[in-house]
Design brief:
six-stranded mixed β-sheet, Cytochrome Bc1 Complex, Chain A, domain 1, alpha+beta, four-stranded antiparallel β-sheet
């Protein structure tokens, strides 16, 4: 059926002829006059304020009943040393647990009262915390979020419990496993540090190492508070008093990395072969135009899986889906991916195929 569909589409015609742009007007469709002349809504304006101690507070006042507040800290697995390996992963797992001011039950009641959702994510160069809530609950949401970020208790029982967790999901998630392997063999230096620690590192990590890593990196000049759906002055009135006493810290030492390229192969008892290929795009977020081109390329290439929840794959009009997934029955999944850091980035393609 896939082969018949592709032949019926006219293989001799160009891609543009077979799939015209969605921006082209449809013949015979006449829009009302007010819709023809309507202009796109203006882009939201971002306001940024830097406190005297170096904390940056940014916001976009987007209309709506909900808001989202996030904190980013300029530290991650690339800042780890052999003695603190695994600290970023542990900070993610210990996020929104007991603080010196609030117990776990009180945090849960506050989240429920604000209609909120919480999340934390460790990265190679950043730690991310977010709190989504009803807009009217902004003061409590900011207070709880900053309390969890600034005053974690790091209870010994929780550290032991999280350190015993297994990372068996890494090898079962083939795409994530290959992404980790690409960094390990592709970069020498800080970006080659594993985002998901080894079993040995988890067995060795303790409360003292996590606290040392935290207090060394969670300083004012590394912290950014950003929010959407809030008034900037209102955000400043709420957040500034909670952040003004945060110490500035010592000068930030940027860990060094160099892209070297490499090859990694892992044997597994499976009928499906998983493969990733990537190359460096120098510049990272410092080169905004290049980073934007990477993201546009990823969208155009797209891809997806043969079958997934919600329909047959994702990005069904993308290049990889139309020209590869629909053409070859033995291809189970294929998608483009990008990873962008401050000064470097990766553009690659992941695929899964039946042997």
């Amino acid at each position: 059926m896939r082969r018949l569909c592709s032949l019926a589409g006219g293989r001799s015609r160009s891609y543009a002829d077979r799939f015209p742009s969605l921006l082209d007007p449809l013949p015979g469709l006449h829009l009302p006059q007010h819709q023809q002349q309507s202009l796109p809504p203006p882009l939201p304006h971002t306001e940024v304020t830097t406190l005297p101690n170096g904390v940056r507070i940014a916001s976009q006042d987007i209309p709506g009943p909900v808001c989202c507040v996030g904190v980013t800290v300029a530290c991650g697995s690339s800042h780890e040393t052999p003695s603190t390996a695994g600290a970023s992963y542990m900070l993610e797992r210990l996020a929104f647990q007991e603080t010196h001011n609030r117990g776990l039950g009180e945090i849960a009641r506050s989240v429920e009262a604000t209609g909120g959702t919480l999340g934390a994510k460790a990265g190679r160069e950043r730690m991310f915390y977010r709190y989504g809530a009803l807009r009217a609950s902004l003061p409590l949401a900011v207070e709880v979020l900053l309390d969890c970020v600034r005053n974690p208790a790091f209870l010994r029982s929780q550290v032991r419990s999280k350190a015993r967790e297994k990372l068996s999901f890494l090898e079962s998630n083939h795409e994530l496993f290959l992404r980790e392997s690409i960094h390990r063999v592709g970069y020498s230096g800080a970006l080659g540090n594993p985002l998901f620690p080894t079993k040995e590192a988890l067995a060795r990590i303790d409360r003292g190492a996590i606290r040392n890593f935290y207090f060394e990196n969670y300083t004012a000049d590394r912290l950014v508070l950003a929010a959407s759906g809030v008034n900037h002055q209102h955000l400043l009135d709420v957040a500034a008093p909670l952040l003004s006493d945060l110490p500035k810290g010592s000068p930030v030492h940027k860990p060094k990395s160099a892209y070297t390229g490499g090859d990694f192969r892992h044997k597994a008892d499976s009928e499906v072969t998983h493969m990733s290929m990537a190359f460096e795009v120098p510049g990272g977020w410092r080169e905004e135009k290049t980073a934007a081109v990477m993201k546009v390329m990823q969208t155009l290439m797209g891809g997806g899986a043969s079958y997934s929840s919600g329909g047959p794959g994702k990005g069904t009009q993308s290049r990889l889906y139309l020209r590869v997934m629909l053409e070859y029955d033995w291809m189970q999944a294929m998608s483009a991916f990008t990873t962008v850091y401050d000064e470097t980035g990766l553009f690659g393609i992941y695929l899964a195929m039946v042997r």
